[in-house]
Amino acid sequence: MDAPEELLPPVIYTMENKPIVTSAGDQNLFASVYPTLSQQLPREPMEWRRSYGRAPKMIHLESNFVQFKEELLPKEGNKALLTFPFLHIYWTECCDTEVYKATVKDDLTKWQNILKAHSSVDWLIVVVENDAKKKNKTNILPRTSIVDKIRNDFCNKQSDRCVVLSDPLKDSSRTQESWNAFLTKLRTLLLMSFTKNLGKFEDDMRTLREKRTEPGWSFCEYFMVQEELAFVFEMLQQFEDALVQYDELDALFSQYVVNFGAGDGANWLTFFCQPVKSWNGLVLRKPIDMEKRELIQRQEATLLDLRSYLFSRQCTLLLFLQRPWEVAQRALELLHSCVQELKLLDVSVTPGALDCWVFLSCLEVLQRIEGCCDRAQIDSNIAHTVGLWSYATAKLKSLGYLCGLVSEKGPNSEDLDRTVSLLAGLGAERPETANTAQSPYKKLKEALSSVEAFEKHYLDLSHATIEMYTSIGRIRSAKFVGKDLAEFYMKKKSPQKAEIYLEGALKNYLAEGWALPVTHTRKQLAECHKHLGQIENYLQTSSLLASDPHLTEEERKYFCQEILNFASRQPDSPSDKVVLPMQSFAYLRDLRFTPSNAVVHVGGVLSLEITLCSQMPIPVHVEQLAISVHFSIEKNSYRKTAEWLTKHKTSNGIVHFPPESPPFPAAPSSSPALELYETFERSPSDNSLNTTGIICKNVHMLLRRQESGPSLDVAPAVAVEDGAHVLKCSAVTLQPGANVITFRTQAKEPGTYTLRQLCASVGPLCFVLPHIYPLLQYDVYCQEPQLRVEPLADSLLAGIPQKVKFTVTTGHYTVKNGDSLQLSNAEAMLILCHAENRAVIYSNTREKASDASLRVQSSDKVTSISLPPAPAYHMIEFELEVLSLPSAPVTAGESSTLGVPEPQRKHKDTQKAGHRMATTDHKVSIDCPWSIYSTVIALTFSVPFRTTHTLLSAGTRKYVQVCVQNLSELDFELSDSRLVDTGDSTSLQLAPLNMASQQHIYSQQSVFFVWELTWTQEPPPSLHGRFSVGFCPASEAQLSVSLKPYTYDFHMENFFTLYSVKAEILPPVGTEHCRTGALCALEVCVTRLADLLEADRDEALTQSDEYLSTKLMYEVVDNSSNWAVCGKSSGVISMPVAAQATHRVHMEVMPLFAGRLPLPDVRLFKYLPHHSAYPSQADADSWIENDSLSVDKHVDDQLDSSSVKSRGSVHSAPGGEHKGLPMPRLQALPPGQVCNSSTAMQVLVVPSRDDHVLEVSVT
Amino acid sequence: MAVCVAVIAKENYPLYIRSVPMENELKFHYMVHTSLDVVDEKVSAMGKALVDQRELYLGLLYPTEDYKVYGYVTNSKVKFVMVVDSSNTALRDNEIRSMFRKLHNSYTDVMCNPFYNPGDRIQSRAFDSMVTSMMIQVC
């Protein structure tokens, strides 16, 4: 029972505080019970129901029992809670009524009165019963009577305020029970008291807080009140509630500061605005910093003091709550807000003082956390503490800079003064850390003491921070700290250490495309490279900076000048070349070939115009610009021909380069653009396309591992190719922006040239574009001279002058004066020489170069064309007129003894393609001056006409009809049509029946000519006719040349009429007309018109009894099925060979339809006996049958040439010995020999009366 | 209100970044860039949550002495970072939230522009003036 002593110094508040319970009455009794009581009280938790809807809590109660004194009771207005007695207990052992009445009652009354005077209602009377005592005094009243008395006297209506504790020191179940009841009562009462008193306190506190707008209100006073509450909660181990009190105070204060900033100042705040004089950091090692608390109590605390104290309390409570990471987080917030609040309140602070305070505080917090956590916990919670580390690092850095500890020379006197005053503000080290070697205080003091110590501490901190950031994956933050470190190293003149940090940071910024940080870091890196003497790196970084649009013009100029200075400085060793990538220096925008298709002939001039955009801010004089070119002899020779050249016109030859990937690529990695090309794979044999596709040529660049490159900034090995072929351009000044540079080259070797690299040399510096994309090539070709002859129109027409174009492609051959083309004349083709022929000379690109006259000399065999002189790789074009002599196509099977012999003439197409023109080919061989071989050229001419002839008979009179059909697209004028007999018979005369001598024949139309054939003596067996007609194109009235007439030869035999056939149909006797279904008589009368002629002499002629006869077969056929022939429809008759011999045949026919019906055909054949020694014919199908004769179509050839009438009237009878049997054969009579006089006759047939019952059977 | 507003692509390169005092542009660039560390951390911590329940607003990324950096990430992992002056205590979380929402809406408008190539720098004038309006209120 040490409580009374502890009361005296009321200011030591520790965790050991317990709520005070006073004890009055029998002190000895209490002393005997106390050990058990203090042990038993906290054993079981009790539920504490709270006011204001706060959640109930289970708490273990402990108490500090002190002896009751009147002074303990709080006076009116005393707000102290910690010293507040929550419960008053009166102990008594009395069991004797006498004693009770004599002393105890008075004592109790006195006690009660004191309590009442202080309006304390939390009291308890404990009556301890002892069996031992009872035994001693047997005459005493039953025990209950004392208790009842007390209850009666003091506890009116509060009987529970008096409890009995039986035999407290015994170890019996009854004792135990009584203890439990007592303890429960005690706890309940205690909690009731807490609830009541704390509630009252809180209400008072709230009232006080509401008064905060009143002028006299003091934050510090209120602070003390609310802290009292916090203490009580802490005392009750309700840390959460305690923390809430501090947080409320914190928020209140913050709000005041904010309001102050907004102009709403509270008077009491001005006190916190006093200048900061001490900055010794947070103190977290003591649970309560009494020094600071007193300052607050005395209202002398500065803002930093208040904040420090508040935070130390929060920290303590958080640590009790096992939330160290929240401490770290809150610490950072606190430090930031303190700095802000000082600024906001406009508190004057010595420069650097805050840095010291923050630095010390950071370390203090960190050490405090480290002190209560193990290593593993700390390692896994770096994310919470690293902020403090980095803050401390930054603060130390700024202190270092402030105190001149970073500069090369060390601190000057001014810096030292500053250091001293800063150290003074730290005060003396606090006793609790004095023995710690690594205390924040010592660290700071040491760091500020010397340059070396500062460096050591700063590096330690920085490295630790970077390491922590890296370990939790905050790479960017790590790089940022690294950059600070690099800055420090640069200041300390150790650029080699700075380089790695700068490069690391730069890589990070580049990879993520942050332009401004990249520029800034590059600037630092440039300086670093400069100090390190890394010329190449420096120049490269400089060139990047010089082209950096984020820098000012002056800065860019400076870096550009640095490059130029270097370039002009080193003339000594020319082999020492520094190769830099070009893209920062300049970029290619476009390129133009002239000629535009990038194809030149050997010896030709190719110019290459590039637009190079310089990114330098000032004009740069470039000694040489060179494009290295790769040469290859390409197999694909097509590109090199003039033909390709004229057909393949590219869009004016300009190639635009893809805009240089913007300085900061959209894609995170600055991977190069895809270089795509199309590929074609052709089969080696026939050059046909096998496969086609797209390939990417820089896969190796794209697919390499991201991190493999040592640095993104340094392009891996810019290799300068040393090609034999280089296009050069010297002494160029590149102005900022676009520059047009022209390269010229004379083509030498044929092949393909690929542009590979562009290199700009400035002194010993080479800016190299290692790779030109898209692929650019130009071709040099060498071409053999060529002659081409082609018609001007679609097709050439025979018989009229036609134009033919000659094209001479000179290729590498130069046409000299006197060179000529020698044409060996084809016989049937004339080359028409005009007085004036002009040749046009074109250049390679189809531009007209000149115009020259052409001399054409013709001799018998050879036509010589002298060419105008022309340079190599030009074209000479001229036109000549040629004339193919016209002639008719030879009719098949007929004689070919024609007037004009045509040995080279080929009959290509005959009758089958109805309207196609017959063509003839003429081959001309030409000797060219550049070759010893002749060129043979075939020209195809089409004959514009097709001619057919027909023999027409009328009895014995004969007519020849010639049909001329114009197949061409032109109209012609026909004149002087003539038909002559070229045979020897003079007796034959041809009388024209044509009207006009001039005839117009339109395109695709026909004209007919007719002649009558007359003869004086015996008619000739054959006629060799030649039809000729003059023609000229209708459009050209006057032609310079006289044209040969068109001729057509034909041959006719047996055209003299031998037989006349007459058929007649008579109606049945007694009727006027034929009737359908009624048999009519058909009477056929065959009459021979001539005596024996030459034409008759064949096998059909039989001689018997000096009497000549010819066997003929007749046949009645009705192809249109108008008639039914009844009975025999054919028969053989023997015709005497004598004029006017007549044979009549009667037949029955029946009309099947009514109307005017044409007569059925009567056909006549020569009937050849079977014994005739005719060669057997293959056509076994053609067999004579009774009714119908199959007509073989293979004689169609003859149909056109010598047809007489319509189809079906001509029969061939290719009979023969069929299947070995001797069979008679039929032979058609030549068309001219039969005259059917009843052709086209018709008979009127009237319908029968009841033809609906007509039934006809035909056998 | 804001002193610096940045839109950062999924790949962490800036699509748009503007700060009010032009002379300190570099500092803000560094600050925004460094804040991406925290964004990444928060986003990966959030990754497990269901997509539709995810809060786009990341809250305070990290405070510095003078500035507060707030973050917001869209579902397509485009990040908005806003730097606010620490002394500007009038700004509450709700206001920051609504500013981010405004920013997001305006960004969506930019994306809806058929002539805008996703991934390009934002040059929309409407977006720019919206950002300006968010910055101007400080004065």
UniProtKB/TrEMBL annotation, chain A:
<dbReference type="GO" id="GO:1990071">
    <property type="term" value="C:TRAPPII protein complex"/>
</dbReference>
<dbReference type="GO" id="GO:0005829">
    <property type="term" value="C:cytosol"/>
</dbReference>
<protein>
    <submittedName>
        <fullName>Trafficking protein particle complex subunit 10</fullName>
    </submittedName>
</protein>
<dbReference type="Pfam" id="PF23036">
    <property type="entry name" value="TRAPPC10_1st"/>
</dbReference>
<dbReference type="GO" id="GO:0006891">
    <property type="term" value="P:intra-Golgi vesicle-mediated transport"/>
</dbReference>
<dbReference type="GO" id="GO:0034498">
    <property type="term" value="P:early endosome to Golgi transport"/>
</dbReference>
<dbReference type="InterPro" id="IPR045126">
    <property type="entry name" value="TRAPPC10/Trs130"/>
</dbReference>
<feature type="region of interest" description="Disordered">
    <location>
        <begin position="893"/>
        <end position="918"/>
    </location>
</feature>
<feature type="region of interest" description="Disordered">
    <location>
        <begin position="1197"/>
        <end position="1227"/>
    </location>
</feature>
<dbReference type="InterPro" id="IPR056917">
    <property type="entry name" value="Ig_TRAPPC10"/>
</dbReference>
<dbReference type="InterPro" id="IPR022233">
    <property type="entry name" value="TRAPPC10/Trs130_C"/>
</dbReference>
<feature type="compositionally biased region" description="Low complexity">
    <location>
        <begin position="1201"/>
        <end position="1212"/>
    </location>
</feature>
<dbReference type="Pfam" id="PF23604">
    <property type="entry name" value="Ig_TRAPPC10"/>
</dbReference>
<dbReference type="InterPro" id="IPR056913">
    <property type="entry name" value="TRAPPC10/Trs130_N"/>
</dbReference>
<feature type="domain" description="TRAPPC10/Trs130 N-terminal">
    <location>
        <begin position="16"/>
        <end position="328"/>
    </location>
</feature>
<feature type="compositionally biased region" description="Basic residues">
    <location>
        <begin position="905"/>
        <end position="915"/>
    </location>
</feature>
<dbReference type="Pfam" id="PF12584">
    <property type="entry name" value="TRAPPC10"/>
</dbReference>
<feature type="domain" description="TRAPPC10 Ig-like">
    <location>
        <begin position="788"/>
        <end position="942"/>
    </location>
</feature>
<keyword id="KW-0333">Golgi apparatus</keyword>
<keyword id="KW-0813">Transport</keyword>
<feature type="domain" description="TRAPPC10/Trs130 C-terminal">
    <location>
        <begin position="1070"/>
        <end position="1246"/>
    </location>
</feature>
Automatic annotation (TrEMBL), chain B:
<keyword id="KW-0963">Cytoplasm</keyword>
<dbReference type="GO" id="GO:0048471">
    <property type="term" value="C:perinuclear region of cytoplasm"/>
</dbReference>
<keyword id="KW-0256">Endoplasmic reticulum</keyword>
<dbReference type="GO" id="GO:0005783">
    <property type="term" value="C:endoplasmic reticulum"/>
</dbReference>
<dbReference type="GO" id="GO:0030008">
    <property type="term" value="C:TRAPP complex"/>
</dbReference>
<protein>
    <recommendedName>
        <fullName>Trafficking protein particle complex subunit 2-like protein</fullName>
    </recommendedName>
</protein>
<dbReference type="Pfam" id="PF04628">
    <property type="entry name" value="Sedlin_N"/>
</dbReference>
<dbReference type="InterPro" id="IPR011012">
    <property type="entry name" value="Longin-like_dom_sf"/>
</dbReference>
<keyword id="KW-0333">Golgi apparatus</keyword>
<dbReference type="InterPro" id="IPR006722">
    <property type="entry name" value="Sedlin"/>
</dbReference>
<keyword id="KW-0813">Transport</keyword>
<keyword id="KW-0931">ER-Golgi transport</keyword>
<dbReference type="GO" id="GO:0006888">
    <property type="term" value="P:endoplasmic reticulum to Golgi vesicle-mediated transport"/>
</dbReference>
<dbReference type="GO" id="GO:0005829">
    <property type="term" value="C:cytosol"/>
</dbReference>
<comment type="similarity">
    <text>Belongs to the TRAPP small subunits family. Sedlin subfamily.</text>
</comment>
<dbReference type="InterPro" id="IPR044760">
    <property type="entry name" value="TRAPPC2L"/>
</dbReference>
<dbReference type="GO" id="GO:0005794">
    <property type="term" value="C:Golgi apparatus"/>
</dbReference>
